[in-house]
């Protein structure tokens, strides 16, 4: 990963162009600019200062880790949250999920709380252990705490949740809290933006 001072210099030299980073979001960070009721750090505290305001393309809740796009391009935010881009998650779930529970997740779930139904989605069972099940879930929607709510509705819960992929963007060797720049060509190739 390039040194932070070099990245800050790069940002100021390129201040007229939008910037986008892929961040490996760590556990216990917020996807908001500030929360006066919490001492939890935000994802923006992990990014270098920028002449333009940073935004996340969608959100991950405080406990969810993994791939998060951070950008100064508000049009990319709109595109990425419109349902145009698939997002893949690896969920470690409580208990051994039955085929019926997995089918319910695939078909769509009433999320309650005024959020309506989750769309039908791709759900693959990666592993069934004695006490938990590991799923890969692919969504285009981005409703509040959607996967956690879906699993709750089928009688399970989340032990660990990580976003592993956004379109064709993968974390690769990025450690938690690290980020890398994503250029216009890569955005076009991996998520169809541009």
Supply database-style keywords.
194 residues; Alpha-Beta Plaits; alpha+beta; nine-stranded mixed beta sheet; Pseudouridine synthase RsuA/RluA-like domain-containing protein; 27% strand
Task: Characterize the structure shown.
- It is a single chain.
- The protein is 22% helix and 27% strand.
- It is globular and about 50 Å long.
- The chain has 2 domains: 4-83 and 167-185, Alpha-Beta Plaits, CATH 3.30.70.580; 87-165, Alpha-Beta Plaits (2-Layer Sandwich).
- The protein has helices at 4-13, 74-80, 99-107, 146-153, 184-191; strands at residues 20-25, 55-56, 65-71, 87-94, 122-128, 132-139, 158-166, 169-170, 179-181.
- Strand 2 and strand 3 (65-71) form a beta hairpin.
- It has 5 helices and 9 strands.
- Strands 1, 2, 3, 4, 5, 6, 7, 8 and 9 form a 9-stranded mixed beta sheet that branches.
- The protein is of the alpha+beta class and 194 residues long.
């Amino acid at each position: 990963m390039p040194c932070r001072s070099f990245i800050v210099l790069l940002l100021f030299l390129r201040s007229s162009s939008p910037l986008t980073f892929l961040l490996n979001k760590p556990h216990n960070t917020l996807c908001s600019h500030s929360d006066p009721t919490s001492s939890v750090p935000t994802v923006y505290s992990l990014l270098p200062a920028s002449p333009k305001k940073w935004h996340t393309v969608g959100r991950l809740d405080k406990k969810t880790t993994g791939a998060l796009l951070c950008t100064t391009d508000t049009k990319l935010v709109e595109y990425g949250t419109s349902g145009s881009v698939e997002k893949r998650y690896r969920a470690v779930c409580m208990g051994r999920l039955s085929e019926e529970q997995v089918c319910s997740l695939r078909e769509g779930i009433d999320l309650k709380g005024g959020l309506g139904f989750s769309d039908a989605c791709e759900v693959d069972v990666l592993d069934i252990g004695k006490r938990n099940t590991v799923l890969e879930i692919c969504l285009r929607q981005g409703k509040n705490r959607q996967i956690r709510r879906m699993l709750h509705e089928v009688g399970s819960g989340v032990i660990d949740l990580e976003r592993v992929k956004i379109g064709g963007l993968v974390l690769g060797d990025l450690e938690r809290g690290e980020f890398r720049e994503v250029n216009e060509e890569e955005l076009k190739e991996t998520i169809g933006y541009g």
